[in-house]
Amino acid sequence: MFNFNVCHVIVFKMLLMGGLLSCASRFTVKGPSGPLVVPLGGSVLLPCSVDSLSSLEDLEVEWKRSDSQTLIHLYQDGDIRPDSQHEDYHDRAHFFTENIKQGNFSLLMKNVRQEDEGQYTCTVHSGQESGETVVEIKDVERLIVSGSDQSLSVYVGEDVTLNCSVDSHIPPEHIEEVSWKKRVKDEHITLYRDRVEFFSDEIHRGNFSLRLKRVRTEDKGLYMCHVFAGRFSDNTTIVLQQLDATDSLLLFCFCLSYSVHHLRMSLVFCPNLIMCFAFVFWGVSEGSVSETVCCCALYILRPLLLLWTAPYINDFKGLINLKRHFNII
Ligand SMILES: *[C@@H]1O[C@H](CO)[C@@H](O)[C@H](O)[C@H]1NC(C)=O
Ligand SMILES: *[C@@H]1O[C@H](CO)[C@@H](O)[C@H](O)[C@H]1NC(C)=O
Ligand SMILES: *[C@@H]1O[C@H](CO)[C@@H](O)[C@H](O)[C@H]1NC(C)=O
Ligand SMILES: *[C@@H]1O[C@H](CO)[C@@H](O)[C@H](O)[C@H]1NC(C)=O
User: Fold this and answer.
1) Ligand closest in space to the Cα of 146
2) What mean pLDDT do residues 124-129 have?
3) Are strands 196-198 and 187-188 parallel, antiparallel or unpaired?
């Protein structure tokens, strides 16, 4: 950037050299002394000024984002031009028209968002002179902790991930404390020791989610992830809910299959046991001990025999089919 005076010297030299006078001179436009840090939702003054302004004629001041070249504010032909301004900045960028005479072209940016982080160029044209300065919004200070909006449903015995992600200007590794608590008794969830785990390789991404393993009925409730960093702190809550209805349905199904299993077993055992008892009574009334013992033993052993051959049931299928085949012939 050229200095005003330097420019004059050049003009002087050019005049001395007898050259034609044409100086597209540049003048010093002052910006802030360093990058700016703004709290999320706050306001920030983007400074831009010149020491001396020779004339207000042909004055043009242009504020743009340096990266996208989005026009934030334009002062041209003695007036502000809101129609050429990007809509994102309609209500958020305030230009002090009354300060123009003092060479002050600062812009007040209100309701600062995270995406406002970046560099801004203030360009001033006046007559033959022009100059610019770059203003940087380095950090939009914030700490936003988010989890999941809906409550989580999970079956007893399953594992569940409780989401907790941190969006902050503070890098995740500089966050001082993250605590997971169950809200009822405010007990630290780390008490669950062997049943919880963090995703340590996800922490640099601000993911402080927690995995709760082998969920129990008493795990049902409200969980809170609380994050502290400097003077900032935020929290998110998650409701963990078990599907008890489906649990009992599962239990019912289990009981049903259990009883069906029992039914089958009783079909195998009951008739044989009854026959066995019948022979005992017959033996008592008729007095034939040897026959009673033989028949009883036969009926007691029959279910065992059935169970013993059950695994080979498929081997007989072919035989059965063969028989049918011959019957048809
Ligand atoms: C420019 O104007 C703003 C708003 O009135 C003021 O806050 C700021 O101090 C001024 N800057 C200079 C360099 O005068
Ligand atoms: C947890 O976060 C992941 C990644 O953002 C997302 O895919 C998932 O749906 C979230 N879970 C819940 C229950 O919100
Ligand atoms: C955090 O990391 C875990 C493990 O990779 C993943 O399941 C979960 O969805 C992540 N959560 C978010 C919010 O990104
Ligand atoms: C959790 O955050 C909310 C605002 O997001 C706040 O009102 C509340 O007091 C916080 N809870 C605790 C225990 O800090």
Assistant:
1) 3
2) 87
3) unpaired
